[in-house]
Design brief:
This protein has eight helices and 97 strands. By secondary structure, the protein is mostly beta strands. The longest helix is centred in the C-terminal third of the chain and has 27 residues. The protein starts with a strand and ends with a helix. Keywords: Cell adhesion, Cell membrane, Cell projection, Disulfide bond, Glycoprotein, Immunoglobulin domain, Membrane, Repeat, Signal, Transmembrane, Transmembrane helix.
Length: 1298
């Protein structure tokens, strides 16, 4: 922020200053600091509009003088290359409550030229930082870091003050009171059981121990559930629990009051209170017993039925309360009665401030935020039920700690000039003002004849070089104090122009233009402007020269284009700067698209011809119903038209052409209606004519009434009227929809915004479309006002360590409500800082806070303000300062190998401060080595704060190297030390191939290849084979052969000719055999030329075939008695497709004599079959039970010896290892049917490490185990799911409520 100012010479009141002059400075936000010389700037919004039709809104001399006498300027910034006294830029809040578990950090930052040195006082005495080894002062600043990890924190409590000093002066910080947060234990007490009559009132006292800061109170039961509160049962501000009347359901033994201490995050619990509610009948029967057990409690004496309200809190009819200005006033009234009374509030002799008033605790608590003096007075709370009403009056007194009316600001004075420091404060009672110079009371400072102190004002006359100093103003009363530093720097500096040279400003005709000339110098430079280096510009129409040197042209015209020169002059020199203004023609649509009625299947053409400034590059965009055009080749966009071919019903809608340039835009719309190809004759419907005779009446600050005369409707009734407005001040040429009224209305009451030059027009709508706009109304200008809203989308995100970027969506010129739009950006560290830091910035969209701690939460507010006031109180948004890379790596990395394919890694999580950001999780990288050949590096990521994870899909018999990193949003931390582990041997994969190469009459030759992955030391191969029987699904006996690891071929002899064999080959290691690879092959036929087939059939279409298998005879079974069949034998050579067939033979099956009895129908036969079936079922059950109890194949004994979990399937119910299950492939022979009890079981595993990573790489549970299951059914480890079964944490449960 750079400075300029005004110099005034007074003729009477300050006559003594005539010779030396008088200066009052104020800063101007420099709008050009991020723009390079010669860069173009597009002006979009003005800052000094016309406020009425007769004159410009420009403050006169009297108004500026009044501001000078009643207000000081805002903060003054001096270029850092110039000598200047120290300025405190950052300091800790006045009341600093620290957590004894963390270091104490007391901030004190300052700037100056030369760089200031720092010192501290504690409790009024010098604090020698160097003598205390636990105290560190950060280099280049005065910030103290006190290590209290091994010290008593109480030793560092006290009042601290920082001093920043250089050769030009001394600045001091506020008194910073350092106190330790405390959470004392609850005093031991014994709560007597309470027995109370139904309907009476009751108070359960909490009375928590006093903490620093005070605790948060809430009531819960033994199950950590919040006790329900309502109009009858409520919690007072002091934490006590009030019952307006008790009911039987209030009986319980676990009324527990909890106190949560915010800084230490500890929770203290009061002993449970037992309450028993009895009705009158029970009391009469048991009163004697009750008196023997405990005291009998009753709020009233035997209440019967309903009763009038009475106040439980506060007592009596009146009470008093004091509140400080700016704080929140909390008034509370709790009443008893039956039925439960209703509470209402009012202020005697005034209204409750609606914008700052809120009701809580079922209207029993009244809160008024941001209290001011007008909020003092009598507040009446009223309790009402159907039996009566009772009142209580609370008399509120508003006092005020000192607050600034005008704080002293820095002064830059030239030698022999005069300046004024003002320190204007207010408060109740009235604050006492004290002045200091360089930290010393002004009455004890060296005498300076040029200095005169008059209460809240210091007048410096005819200052000389070398008299620079820092002045402190301290204002205090019984409720607090304010202290501000303001330096006086005596400089002789020639002018500087801070605006980059040769900047080009571009605006549209009739828009405002702002040409900047930010400057600095001492004495303050005088700014003059010239056009085209010749014409001197005066402060009159069409130009306005602002105090900061900015030249404004309210309504720029083409003749205003050209070169502008600003000259900054003082008695030490002169400096000039050149900028250029280009006034462009506005973009206008000359020929708008027109309403189209097009037959289905034909083409529609919309024209949109545009005129624009030739130096601007236009962009044409077409929209359909405010969205993008359909992605359809039927839509063709030309330079000035849109063509829609082969129109369909879906093409109906509103089409809009938009012409954009870098400075402005224009748009127009038309509707497309699709009709039948041969429409029947109908009445001609057209758009209505434009409304006419627009008139404005009943004009106020925020409303105006618009009337008009409708146009011809053209056979289609008017549905509605659309009122549009043009803002000639902020967006000339752009018409915006304001409101709609019914088609039967001819007037509209319009709500307006401040600081807008309105022009209205009206459009009528019928079934055909909108009419052309009416002629614009006369211009109506609204007066400026404070903003009605604040910026939206406020965010706080740190983009790099040590900063916080606060961003927002700025208000538009229309929303600004007045000139001089700025934003007040406020921030403070959440739960750490009490006072808000703030900065007023120009109309920008972000502000960067530097010097923040790494990744801490901040409360953020952004408020809009202009020359007429501030916007509403902004909402608080939580943001986080910038993250940094993690500092440390996980410790104690351990790997536990569970099997040849699964391992588990454990580590010690890093300390939270070393994460320096939001913990995203942990990342594991491993590099596998199989033999001596390194494999690809693999990565697993695990989200959340965890200490273990699983490594599935490992390769058996391999060596792995692993390390772990911590992740945050900024990136990865350093890796942990590498950890190497090995996986044991496993079963090998199946052989790579199995081929039958030679088919003999009684022999077959087999060849195979070794497995792709041995997964261990290969011990050999196992070959099983068995013959098929008559080419059916039945298989013969199994023969087994074993081979050494180096054998890969075998010739099997003594086989049956013309026999189909099935082979099963598996590789094996010491862990056992791997999966089988299967193959089928047949020996050669005994007659090498044919494979005979017997065919039977009753007709040509019903032939059935049976294989003869090389024999010379065959029995055909299953023929029906009394039927005739044709039989033939068919042979086919394997190498010749020719089919050889015998002649057909007719065979007749004899019929069964009628006296013959079918055995299948005999009862004895049916009974015998049932008995056999039952016996078989019992036998199967016995076998099944025996098998489950320990029946094992021989291979099971080997597995028991090795105990390899890799080949032990896990039971589904308890996760333990079950019995061996034979997974041999029993796939049926080709062409055969699958037996009813035959299954094909898949043994191959589809596991891979990629399947188990996060995101696309897989998912993992919270404990690191994988969620993604194997392709076959997998079993969870028994320890999975512990997190869900863990007992609930009381602290977590209670924190969730507070």
């Amino acid at each position: 922020m750079f400075v300029t100012g005004l110099k005034y010479v007074f003729s009477s009141f300050f006559a003594s200053f005539l010779q030396c002059g008088f200066r009052h400075l104020h800063p101007v936000d420099h709008p050009d600091s991020a723009v390079e010389p010669g860069e173009k700037v597009f002006i979009v919004t003005p800052t000094r509009p016309n406020m009425d039709g007769n004159r410009k809104w420009v403050p006169g001399f009297e108004a500026v003088l009044l501001i000078l006498l009643s207000h000081t300027a805002v903060a003054l910034e001096v270029p850092l290359d110039l000598p200047q006294p120290p300025t405190i830029t950052l300091q800790s809040p006045k009341d600093y409550i620290f957590d004894p578990r963390e270091n104490i950090v007391i901030h004190c930052e300052a700037k100056g030229k030369p760089q200031p040195s720092f010192s501290w006082t504690r409790n009024g005495s010098h604090f020698d930082v160097e003598k205390d080894s636990k105290v560190l002062m950060k280099p280049g600043s005065g910030t103290l870091v006190i290590d209290i990890s091994q010290e008593k924190a109480e030793a560092y409590e006290g009042t601290y003050q920082c001093t920043a000093h250089n050769e030009h002066g001394t600045a001091v910080s506020n008194n910073i009171i350092i106190r330790q947060s405390r959470s004392p234990l609850w005093s031991k007490e014994r709560n007597e059981a309470i027995v109370v009559q139904m309907g009476v009132s009751l108070v359960l006292q909490c009375r928590p121990p006093a903490g620093l800061p005070p605790p948060v109170i809430f009531w819960m039961d033994n199950n950590f559930q919040r006790l329900p509160l309502d109009k009858r049962v409520s919690q007072a501000l002091n934490g006590d629990l009030y019952f307006s009347n008790v009911l039987p359901e209030d009986t319980r033994s676990d009324y527990i009051c909890y106190a949560r201490f915010p800084h230490t995050q500890t929770i203290q619990q009061k002993q449970p209170i037992s309450v028993t509610v009895l009705d009158m009948e029970t009391i009469n029967a048991t009163v004697a017993a009750l008196y023997n057990i405990t005291d009998f409690y009753s709020g009233e004496c035997s209440p019967e039925g309903e009763r009038r309200p009475g106040f439980m809190l506060p007592l009596g009819t009146t009470s008093t309360q004091m509140v400080l200005r700016g704080e929140t006033l909390e008034l509370e009234c709790i009443a008893d009665g039956l039925p439960t009374p209703d509470i209402s509030w009012q202020k005697d002799g005034g209204e409750l401030p609606s914008s700052r008033t809120s009701f809580h605790n079922f209207k029993k608590t009244l809160k008024i935020s941001d209290v001011n003096e007008a909020d003092g007075g009598a507040y009446r709370c009223t309790a009402t039920n159907n039996l009566g009403t009772v009142h209580h009056i609370i008399k509120v007194t508003v006092n005020a700690a000192p607050f600034w009316v005008s704080a002293p600001r820095n002064l830059i004075l030239a030698p022999n000039e005069t300046g004024i420091l003002t320190c204007r404060v207010s408060g109740e009672p009235k604050p006492q003002i004290s002045w200091f110079v360089n930290g010393v009371p002004i009455e004890n400072a060296p005498e300076d004849h040029s200095r005169k102190v008059d209460d809240d004002t210091v007048i410096l006359s005819s200052v000389q070089s070398g008299s620079s100093a820092v002045y402190q103003c301290n204002a205090s009363n019984a409720f607090g104090y304010l202290m501000a530093n303001a330096f006086v720097s005596v400089l002789a500096e020639p002018p500087r122009v801070l605006t980059p040279p040769n900047r080009v400003y571009q605006v549209i005709t009739n828009s405002p233009a702002l040409l900047h000339c930010a400057s600095f110098g001492s004495p303050i430079p005088t700014i003059t402007w010239f056009k085209d280096s010749q014409i001197s510009i005066k402060n009159s129409d069409p130009y306005v020269i602002h105090e900061d040197g900015t030249l404004e042209i309210h309504v720029a015209q083409p003749l205003n284009s050209g070169k502008y020169t600003c000259i900054a002059t003082n008695n030490l020199g002169i400096k000039e700067n050149h900028v250029f203004l280009e006034v462009k023609e506005p973009t206008r649509i000359l020929k708008q698209p027109e309403y189209k009625v097009v037959q289905r299947g034909l083409s529609a053409v919309f024209e949109c011809k545009v005129k624009h400034d030739p130096s601007l590059v236009p962009t044409m965009t077409w929209l359909k119903d405010k969205g993008e055009l359909p992605d359809d080749e039927r839509f063709e966009v030309d330079t000035d038209s849109l063509i829609i071919k082969d129109v369909t019903d879906e093409d109906e809608g509103t089409y809009t052409c938009i012409m954009n340039t870098t400075l402005d835009q224009d748009s127009a719309s038309a509707m497309l209606t699709v009709v039948e190809a041969t429409p029947t004759p109908a009445i001609v419907y057209e758009k209505p004519d434009s409304p006419a005779d627009l008139e404005l009446t009943d004009q106020t600050e925020r409303t105006v009434q618009l009337t008009w005369t409708p146009g011809d409707e053209h056979n289609s009734p008017t549905q509605k009227f659309l009122i549009q407005y043009e803002d000639l001040l902020h967006e000339p040429g752009v018409w915006i929809n304001l409101t709609e009224v019914a088609g039967t209305s001819t007037t509209a009451q319009l709500n307006l915004s401040p600081y807008v030059y309105y022009s209205f027009r009206v459009r009528a709508l019928n079934n055909v479309g909108y009419s052309e706009p009416s002629q614009p109304s006369r211009q109506y200008r609204t007066n400026p006002a404070a903003p009605d809203e604040n910026p939206s989308d406020v965010h706080g995100v740190g983009l790099e360590p040590g900063n916080l970027v606060i961003s927002w969506t700025p208000l538009t010129g229309f929303q600004s409500n007045g000139p001089g739009l700025e934003y007040k950006v406020q921030w403070r560290q959440k739960d750490i800082e009490e006072n808000w830091s703030s900065k007023n910035v120009a109309n920008v969209s972000q502000f960067v806070v530097s010097g923040t701690p790494t990744y801490v939460p901040y409360e953020i507010k952004v408020q809009a303000l202009n020359d007429y006031g501030s916007g509403p109180d902004p909402e608080v948004v939580i943001g986080y300062s910038g993250e940094d890379l993690p500092l440390s790596a996980p410790d104690s990395v351990r790997v536990m190998v569970h099997s040849s394919t699964l391992a588990e890694v454990h580590w010690e999580p890093v300390a939270f401060p070393s994460v320096r950001g939001k913990l995203q999780g942990y990342k594991k990288q491993k590099l596998s080595k199989k033999g001596r050949q390194p494999q690809e590096e693999q990565v697993l990521s695990f989200s959340g704060n965890r200490s273990e994870g699983r490594l599935p899909g490992l390769q058996p018999y391999s060596v792995y190297s692993l390390f772990v990193k911590v992740l945050n949003s900024k990136g990865e931390g350093p890796p942990s030390p590498s950890k190497t582990f090995e996986t044991p041997e496993g079963v090998p994969e199946q052989p790579s191939f199995l081929n039958v190469v030679n088919h003999g009459m009684d022999s077959l030759t087999l060849e195979w290849g070794p497995p792709t992955n041995n997964n261990g030391r290969l011990a050999g191969y196992t070959l099983k084979y068995q013959p098929g029987i008559n080419y059916t699904s039945e298989l013969g006996p199994v023969k087994v052969m074993t081979f050494l690891a180096n054998e890969t071929t075998i010739t099997l002899g003594n086989l049956n000719a013309s026999m189909l064999y099935k082979f099963y080959l598996s590789a094996r290691t010491i862990k056992g055999p791997g999966p089988d690879i299967t193959q089928e092959a047949s020996t050669a036929m005994d007659t090498s030329e044919s494979y005979p087939t017997v065919e039977t059939g009753k007709g040509k279409e019903d032939w059935k075939k049976e294989m003869v298998n090389g024999s010379h005879s065959h029995m055909i079974k299953g023929l029906k008695p009394g039927m005739s069949y044709r039989v033939r034998v068919v042979a086919k050579d394997a190498a010749d497709p020719t089919v050889h067939s015998t002649d057909e033979v007719l065979v007749t099956v004899p019929a069964v004599p009628s006296r013959q009895v079918d055995i299948a129908t005999q009862g004895w036969f049916i009974g015998l079959m049932c008995a056999i079936a039952l016996l078989i079922l019992v036998l199967l059950i016995v076998c099944f039970i025996k098998r489950n109890k320990g029946g094992k194949y021989p291979v099971k004994e080997k597995e028991d010896a090795h105990q390899d979990p890799e080949i032990q399937p896990m039971k589904e119910d308890d996760g333990t290892f079950g019995e061996y299950s034979d997974t041999e492939d029993h796939k049926p022979l080709k062409g055969s049917r699958t037996p009813s009890n035959g299954t094909v079981r898949r043994d191959e595993s589809d596991d891979s490490l990629v399947d188990y990573g996060e995101g696309g790489d897989g998912q993992f549970n919270e404990d690191g185990s994988f969620i993604g299951q194997y392709s076959g059914k997998k079993e969870k480890d028994t320890h999975e799911g512990n997190e869900s079964s863990e007992a609930p944490s009381p602290v977590n449960a209670m924190n969730s409520f507070v």
